[in-house]
Amino acid sequence: MSVDSVQRTLSLEDFRAEAEAFLEASVSAVRTDHGQFEFDDTEDRVTLFRGATAEEAQRARDWQRRVYDAGFGWITGPVDLGGAGLPARFEQAYLETERRYPVPSRSPLGVSLGMVFPTLLNFGTEQVKQRWLLPLRRADVVGCQLFSEPGAGSDLASVSTRAKRTESGDWLVTGEKVWTSGAHYSDVGLLLARSSEGSRHRNLTAFVVDMHAAGVEVRSLRQMTGGADFNEVFLDGVAIPDENRLGDIDDGWRVALATLMYERGAIGGATAGGSGLFRLDRIIAWLHELGCERDPAVRQAFARVHAGLTAAKAMRARAEAAVKAGTTPGPEMSLSKLALTSNLASLSDLVGVALGPRLLADTGERDAYSWSEFVLGVPGMRLGGGSDEIQRDIIAHRVLGLPKGPG
Amino acid sequence: MTTQSDVDTRAELRSAVRQCLDRHADVWRFVADGNDQRHRVDEHLYQRLAGEMGLAGLLVPEWLGGSGAGVGELSAACEELGSSLAPVPVFATAGLAVPALLVGSGFGADDVGAELLTSIADGAMVATLAVAESPGHAVGDVASIRATRSGDAWTVRGEKQFVVDGAVADVVLVPAMTDSGTALFAVDRTAVGVQVEPMSGIDLLRGLAKIRLDSAPARLIGADSGAEVALKTALELSVIVLAAEQVGGAQRCLDNAVAYAKQRVQFDRPIGSFQAVKHLLVDLLLEVELARSAMTHAVGIADEYLRDPSTTTAADLAEAAAVARSMCSETFMHVADEALHVHGGIGFTWEHDCHLYYRRAKFCELLFGNPYEYRERLATAAGLPG
Ligand SMILES: Cc1cc2nc3c(=O)[nH]c(=O)nc-3n(C[C@H](O)[C@H](O)[C@H](O)COP(=O)(O)OP(=O)(O)OC[C@H]3O[C@@H](n4cnc5c(N)ncnc54)[C@H](O)[C@@H]3O)c2cc1C
To answer: Which of A46-55, A148-157, A283-292, B223-232 has the lowest mean pLDDT?
Structure first.
């Protein structure tokens, strides 16, 4: 399917067939490296985080470009902006199909495509959209999220990075950001900064900043898994033209809330409570390989994982049936993220019960000690994208209608 | 596939059932108390629900007088029943007996099965299935019940326990051993040699009974051997219907707890503004949503099985039932427990309905096998040989 052939009506079956044809033709041409969150055919690695190395990020970019050029890179996007103009179920169908092929993981682009892109689409000036939208979509340009700071994590509205307006109407930004996933391979950053002394939530402005601009310094941070997916970003008098402003002056909180909603949608949507990450048949085959399939404790732990993932998948199906395609993700995505962290905990438990000491030290067996990277990554998923506690607060207020607390 | 019109029919049925229960269900009048542990049911309400509204016949094919609807419809109604705790033998009749009769009779191919299904669909007959023999026995075990044939007539001998609504059922379905194997029989409660004894029970609104059969006359349903496969499948359908009740009960407990948390003030603020309470309620919401999803998924699979009973659909049914059953049992129990906790001391009083749900949750959790057993079955169904 090419970008300009999408106007015609396309059945889901034909679409799937075209996706299969594209993937068949592509798998031999790309280095296989699939299996984020999933034990791998080609590499003895199970991990929740990918993108630490430059090569991994580059492979993701190369693959996204191919996918975009084949017409599958922005399936739900409007045709006049470079999308394929198809309903959400086509996107779902493509992703399902793609998961069957050993293609490179695109997770290093998760923030860029899932959060930076929609924010620019909805809040960017014409210049910003012209300059960055398509390149972001094609992964010619990659974006990161410059929100968290040492003093502002869960309480994001308290960021202290300063944006000062110059006489020309442009901006100078100084401050320190932290935990910035993928900053080391990013070209642009979505920045939230303090722009006035106004009241809380009325004193922030959002920008898109060129990560190669003078005054931007990225220092890598090593996380507990041993990898280095995130960074500290120092901003020292970085000049930002006013056209890079997203939304109104001092109205950046609204932009940030939208980004956070896209983030929950991206995490909740792509992972579907974990059922979008793990295939039960692979887990079953693995347990057989280990020869522990009759161990009663393993069977209990496995059944918990099975039930949790099956229910999460069914919950997603219910949400899809209820919500018309195209609406912005609501609080159910917070539920989906809590389902994810709960299922990750169950899987981590199963892995420990099944492997025993083989999780603790490398015996040289495949798909054994390599799970340790996954197990050590689980705590990060409970924090990134808003901690479990913050998700619970959101659901308590928006879904259950419970009153706000003292904080 | 669930179509939009299925969705609409179910929503209509659900709201009709809810209206009927709001208007006519008076649970407290039937709560078994003190020395009076005899279980009673609301017969008038059962007549309305089973007869007039046709709940008993939802799974019964149209040619046998039912509505030929599906588990989708039955589960929608049972969610409401689970939410209200109304003491009516709908689960026993429509959830236990009907699936056993349907699967056991080859979907009405057998005359006795067809006749019983017709009477049930009419609302005239309360029926149940006697599953367990003794606490230690596995579900569906028939080791000590013997069926003897003389001419065309059968008699059965033995004892069953924990029979749901056994004291009020007109007909009890009893799996028993024949000379050839396992078979399903129907026994009239009033027949000679049938002795029914209500058991004192934890659930004050749903009774269990002991049934002694002393050469009681019985009618054979289907073949005189090989019924264990049908029974296993029928029970999988039953626990999916029960899962809908469990979801209904859990949702009600959660709703009550959320409402109470908004209104109860301590330390000058509603307790629902305390994060410990708030987060607890959100965790319960997540559990209920996941349990509901697992149940909805299983209901879809159950209807696929009923439309096309094959070994493939039966295998899917076994897996989906185990998922739904293990989750819904744990969820209802946990939600009932925590909802009571949020109510504080008042939740621990006899007059408050928290304990009625707590009791029902325990009843549902342990009756046809506990969550650990269903996870064990799930492991087998999913492909880990046991
Ligand atoms: C893997 C990973 C990737 C990340 N990527 C990015 C990124 O790309 N860009 C970015 O900007 N940020 C990123 N973050 C940062 C992330 O958003 C923050 O870590 C998170 O919001 C928590 O903030 P904090 O680390 O300052 O912890 P704190 O906010 O200090 O929280 C510490 C603990 O207190 C709890 N807590 C805080 N407030 C409350 C409250 N009101 N009620 C109850 N409990 C509370 C938290 O739940 C947590 O358990 C990433 C984090 C991780 C782990």
So the answer is: A46-55
| Mean pLDDT value of segment B347-368 | 93
* Cα(A348)–Cα(A19) distance, integer angstroms: 33
Instruction: Please tell me the least confidently modeled range out of A47-51, B140-144, B222-226.
Output: B140-144
Tell whether B72 is within 8 A of chain A (Cβ).
no
Question: For all residues of chain A together, what is the average pLDDT?
Answer: 88
Catalytic residue check, A263: yes
Global pTM value: 0.88
ipTM of the complex: 0.86
Element (H, E) at A182: none
Q: Which residue has the higher pLDDT, B233 or B108?
A: B233
The Cα-based distances of A77 to A3, A10, A42, A71, A190 in angstroms read 11, 15, 33, 11, 21
CATH code for the domain of B107: 1.10.540.10
Closest residue by Cα to atom 2, ligand 1, is A384
Do the Cβ atoms of B77 and B58 come closer than 8 Å?
A: yes
Query: Is the residue at A25 inside a domain?
Result: yes
- A285 and A353 share one domain: yes
Q: Is residue B386 part of a domain?
A: no
Give me the mean pLDDT over the B329-338 stretch.
97
Question: Which member of B278, B327, B385 has the closest CB to residue A396?
Answer: B278
Give the pair of three-digit tokens for residue B362. Answer: 């325990």
What residue type is assigned to position A304 of the chain? R
Q: Which of A185-199, A260-274, B258-272 has the lowest mean pLDDT?
A: A260-274
d(CA A230, CA A183): 7
Q: Determine, yes or no, domain membership for B35.
A: yes
Q: How far is the CA of A399 from the centre of ligand 1 (A)?
A: 22
Phi and psi torsions of B183, nearest 5°: -140, 165
Is the CB of residue A279 less than 8 Å away from at least one CB of chain B?
A: no
| Interface contact flag, A300 B372, Cβ < 8 Å | yes
Among B293, B316, B374, pick the best mutation site for testing chain A contact (most A Cβ within 10 A): B293
Residues B153, B217, single domain; the answer is: yes
Task: Mutate one of B253, B262, B286 to test the A interface: name it (highest A CB count within 10 A).
Answer: B286
Minimum-distance CB partner of A315 among B283, B289, B326: B289
CA B210 from centroid of its chain's CA atoms:
18
Return d(Cα B172, Cα B288) in angstroms, integer: 33
CA dihedral B115, B118, B122, B123 (to 10 degrees): 70
Are the beta carbons of B79 and B14 closer than 8 angstroms? yes
Percent of chain A surpassing pLDDT 90: 63
B296 CB near a chain A CB, below 8 Å?
yes
Write out the residue range of the structural domain in which residue B263 sits.
Answer: 228-381
* Tens-place pLDDT, residues A14-65: 999 999 999 998 886 554 444 333 444 556 678 887 767 888 899 999 999 9
Summarize pLDDT for A96-112 with one digit per residue, the tens. 888 888 888 888 999 99
Same domain for A362 and A394, yes or no, is yes
Ligand 1 binding pocket, CB closer than 6 Å: A 111, 144-145, 147-148, 153-154, 179-181, 230, 380, 383-384, 386-387, 389-390, 407; B 275
Distance A179 CA to ligand 1 centre (A): 9
Residues 124-153 of chain A whose Cβ lies under 8 A from any Cβ of chain B = none
Bridging pattern class, strands A188-194 and A143-146:
parallel
Work out how many domains chain B is built from and give that number: 3
Neighbours of A11 (CB within 10 A): 8
Looking at residue A331, its pLDDT comes to 65
CB B240 within 8 A of CB B200: no
Contact B211, B144 (CB under 8 A): no
- Model confidence at A4, pLDDT cuts 50, 70, 90, reads very low
What residues pair up with A181 in beta bridges, in sequence order? A230
Min distance A357 CA to chain B CA atoms (Å): 22
